[in-house]
């Protein structure tokens, strides 16, 4: 899936910045002269160009079937970009249009963010409440076949094109999970409407804020969610908050900056460095604090990529939050979308981004402060037995309050995600512990 964001800042006139496995942010298109890489006036590689022209001529003359010049030249362009890195690509009109259309967070497909691994298509993360997540597809799954056709050798753009389709149509994916046996999953394509920010109170005083993707309005939505959590808490400041970035593949750079800024009052959030002068950007926090300094735990995992890593890295470097979970994905590169004059575009890696302390996340990721692996919770049957309150004639409690015999059942709230999510439960317990030691 591709994400697009238009924004205009004086320092970003020459860049269309993309963050996330298949997309991110798009700056306002600059004048051609501003976007161009400064030329060193190096002479053209005439020998190599002659070889290219000779190969083109030989293919046209001798290949078993006729091939037109347009096809040969476009394939040559694709080849140039595909051999640079996994995220640079030549966008033909349909792919470029899809990139532009997906800014709103609504698109057709399965709801899977993908990358490449050993020539196979790898699931970076399924998006919440989509056909992919409902079918049980997990981050790390390898897609080895699409509708029975092997994906080995397919480019990422071609694989995405095969998985897209008319809402209501069906598709079969063959997956391999953690080196196991291949298995098939049948899905029905749908119009994916991604709700990027979700929030609720886990318990009185403790909030939960999940960001599934960094979309155009995600920063604003997080601000509203923080205000609503306080309102739901009776207008009182929260005792703790869990910011869940697990399986968040990234998205709009500006949204990542805005969300980080909700929790920081000063200092650097992120900066980028590249060969183009205008690719060197710096983003700083302002003094406003929408979170009111609430104790914060950030959850990450292997599906947390790019813009998610910007937020986690900034909050970690400033010691504003405890980062918990498992290592993040490790995508620390920035892509620039350079529109061409024929409804096509280049998606080109132009910079790396760095956390406030100068850490490059590329191919390493964010290491959590506290490692908590994903685990499945099972509840044991309560042991049979008696308590003092079960005994006939027991003394009452002079401090007041009802007796609590064995038969007392504590009502269970069915809408408590921490009961079935081990990592979330551990994050909540950490916040409670922090408040106990601080005397709150």
From TrEMBL:
Top-level taxon: Bacteria
Pfam family, one: CtpB_N-like
Signal peptide: 1-27
Any one GO molecular function term: serine-type peptidase activity
One GO term of the biological process aspect: proteolysis
Stretch list, region Disordered: 391-421
Record carries keyword Protease: yes
Keyword terms of this UniProt record: Hydrolase, Protease, Serine protease, Signal
Residue span(s) of domain PDZ: 96-164
UniProt xrefs under InterPro entries: ClpP/crotonase-like_dom_sf, CtpA/B_N, PDZ, PDZ_sf, Peptidase_S41A, Tail-specific_protease
Record-level GO cellular component terms: outer membrane-bounded periplasmic space
PROSITE patterns in UniProt: PDZ (PS50106)
Family from the record: Belongs to the peptidase S41A family.
PANTHER family: CARBOXY-TERMINAL PROCESSING PROTEASE CTPA (PTHR32060:SF30), TAIL-SPECIFIC PROTEASE (PTHR32060)
The protein's name in its UniProt record: S41 family peptidase
